[in-house]
Backbone:
């Protein structure tokens, strides 16, 4: 059978898609653009991602046999076959190990539980970048978030399995390893270990590679973790810490478990101890109860701390979450205006922060050609979510080389190698 896979949503979904592809290839099936069957690994985190998943399914179902998996199925479960008769097969995450036996069947295969194992995989990203998933699910229960209901409670992979997969990635030429999970600082919470212990194990593996830590809950970024990140040059000085808001009232309603004072102490500590660290964050505007004054305080907080990268989101009212029934929901037009203001000021901040790099020599991740130009990223730019580097000079796709930043733009840079 020839099949193709469409992976929607976050890198965690992509890793699971890679696991599916390898299992099917090992059974003799062929990954191809022109295929008999399309597997759609869906996202349903917020309303917009749910709509995208549904639209993709309906479009593909016009031409091909369709298999649906991922978050849409985990969230809506038994309702989907009746709502989407166009779909031939629904496969839940806990059936991934059996997908080779199910791929030709019809119906619904769904059971409870979280799925953390994602190895072996067929890497679908280009070298040198790959994701390394260390956990599944989340215990945080933020009031706006659907993840615990979709992906279940926290389940961490065994350190030995993580290290084995890292060694496999390195053996296959991947040298930028992006460590991911819903909240990697909670790794090992139920298994008598922690993220620091895992990182120490990982860094015992010798080699010329870089680690990027993605999705660190502010509450889990300890003094010891900051010091450890600064202690080994193989750990990229990239701090991905989603603050979500600055005001105590909103943070409390969100269930984030920290205060504005905590955030300011944390960010100040990072700026002092790792001055060259790139700070990335996310912020939610229009959360229930957010007043004009609350928003203005968030706006000023962002201006004060000058995050290198920031992703803003308009609050999405999601059934089943704690925030769904809260009072004081903000009108969509107001949310849009607030979102636009945040993104406008962040554009200026990003431009200013990048301009500080003008003339500096740095490592560049070379990804390939785009419209005739070699492109890649600085080490302080994560794949897919941050800016890019336009590369002048001779370089080879898949390598990490050294270059000089000769020009900076709003979010991107031009580098000579």
Residues:
């Amino acid at each position: 059978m020839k099949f193709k896979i469409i992976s929607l949503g976050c890198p965690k979904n992509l890793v699971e898609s890679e696991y599916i592809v390898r299992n099917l290839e090992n059974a003799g099936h062929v990954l191809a653009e022109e295929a008999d069957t399309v597997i759609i690994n869906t996202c349903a985190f917020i309303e917009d991602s749910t709509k995208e998943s549904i639209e993709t399914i309906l479009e593909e179902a016009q031409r091909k046999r369709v298999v649906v998996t991922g978050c849409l199925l985990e969230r809506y479960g038994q309702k989907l076959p009746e709502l989407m008769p166009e779909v031939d097969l629904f496969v839940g995450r806990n059936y991934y190990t059996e997908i080779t036996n199910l791929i030709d069947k019809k119906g619904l295969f769904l059971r409870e539980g979280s799925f953390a194992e994602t190895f072996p995989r067929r890497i679908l990203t280009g070298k040198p970048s790959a994701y390394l998933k260390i956990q599944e699910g989340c215990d945080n229960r933020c009031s706006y978030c659907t993840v615990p209901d979709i992906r279940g409670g926290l389940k961490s992979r065994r350190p030995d399995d993580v290290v084995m997969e890292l060694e496999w990635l390195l053996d296959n030429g991947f040298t930028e390893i992006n460590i991911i999970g819903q909240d990697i600082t909670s790794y090992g919470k139920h298994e008598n270990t922690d993220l620091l212990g895992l990182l120490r194990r990982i860094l015992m593996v010798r080699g010329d590679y870089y680690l990027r830590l993605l999705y660190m809950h502010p509450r889990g970024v300890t003094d010891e973790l900051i010091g450890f990140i600064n202690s080994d040059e193989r750990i990229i000085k990239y701090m991905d810490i989603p603050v979500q808001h600055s005001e105590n009232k909103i943070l409390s309603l969100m269930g984030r478990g920290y205060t504005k004072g905590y955030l300011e102490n944390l960010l100040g500590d990072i700026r002092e101890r790792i001055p060259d660290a790139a700070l990335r964050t996310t912020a939610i505007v229009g959360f229930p109860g957010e007043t004009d004054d609350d928003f203005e305080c968030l706006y000023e907080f962002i201006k004060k701390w000058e995050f290198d990268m920031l992703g803003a989101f308009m609050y999405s009212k999601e059934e089943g979450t704690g925030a769904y029934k809260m009072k004081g929901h903000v009108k969509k037009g107001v949310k849009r205006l607030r979102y636009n203001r945040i993104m406008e000021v962040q554009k200026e901040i990003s431009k200013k922060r990048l301009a500080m790099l003008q003339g500096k020599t740095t490592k560049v991740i070379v990804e390939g050609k785009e419209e005739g130009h070699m492109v890649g990223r600085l080490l302080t730019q994560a794949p897919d979510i941050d800016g890019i580097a336009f590369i002048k000079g001779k370089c080879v796709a898949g390598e990490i080389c050294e270059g000089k930043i000769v020009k900076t733009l709003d979010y991107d840079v031009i580098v000579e190698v």
